[in-house]
Every structure is written in structure tokens, then in C-alpha cells.
Design goal:
Layout (H helix, E strand, L loop, with lengths): L14 H5 L2 H39 L6 H15 L1 H6 L15 H36 L12 H31 L1
Helix pairs in contact: 2-3, 3-6, 5-6
Amino acid sequence: MMHGPAAGQADPTSAAHRETGGVLGHALAWVNRAILLAAALALIAACGILSYSVVVRSLFHSATYWQDEAAVFLLVGATFLTAAFVQSQRGHIGIEAFTGLLSPLVNRIRLLLVDIASLAFCAFFAWKSWTLTHEAYVDGQVSNSIWSPPLAIPYGLMAAGMTLLCVQIALQIAQALKHWIRS
């Protein structure tokens, strides 16, 4: 099940709920839409690269040494950079065993606590990803393949995606708190 509101609770993807995000919410929504387009293109490119590799290896018995890493880099970017959009839709998988048993107030508290815990984890992950990116860039780290692309690329994509996810979760926490203050 998806981690979202129980019956009788406000839908966090509704227009009224999104409006409470203000300028930051609108900016993040625009960035998420742009990233979705780029991620779709990255997935198509990864499919094309891997298909090209299969054809070249099968028909021409020629090695392609770059295709696996290029596809992985594209998939890492698509996965991590779209995480904020998925969170904005409450599309991440959550455990909902007790949702139906809890009152709407307790469910709102549960969602808030889950968001706070998620933000703490994602903020740590983003921080470590940025330090990893910095180290890879400063040290000139590259992959161990013949192609040897810089590792700062996938690390940077991972760090940027986790940072956007932190912003999205923080925005949802602020929206929940704003909703509670109004109530």
C-alpha cells in the first residue's frame, strides 16, 4: 500500500493541499515536472544504449565497454532525481497495517512522525552523498572500467535527488504543521 491518508483524511495531492506550499511548493513542482521529462528521456536512452550493446555484440562480435556504466548512470539519475516527485504524490511504499484502525487525528500524527523520521534519514543520506561527491570530484575518482567515467557524476545525481527529496519532505511537514495550526 502507499503511504498516504486514511479514509476521512485530506488528500495530500489535492489542489487545496498543494496550494499551501507557496512559492517553494510551486517551484519544486515545476522542477519535479522537468525532472520527470528528463528521467523519461534517460530511461529511453538507457534502453537504447543497452539494445545497441546487444546488437553490436551479437551481430558484429564487438565489445562495448561503456554501455553498462552509461545505462547505470542514467538509471541512477532517473531513480534518485524523481524521488521528490514520488514523495509529492505519497507514492513511496509504506506499512499501512493499522491505518484503518486509527482515528484521523492519530493517522495525521503517524504521517507527521513518519515524515520527520524520513527527513532525518534522507538528510543524513543527502549529506553523506554530497561528501562522497566532493571527495570523488576532488580526488578525481573514476570507475574501474576501461571507459573510466568520473564517479562524481552518479554521486552528484544521487546527492541532488536526495536533497530534492529532503526539500519535498520538509515542505510536507510544514504543510501538515500549518494545517494543524489552522485547525
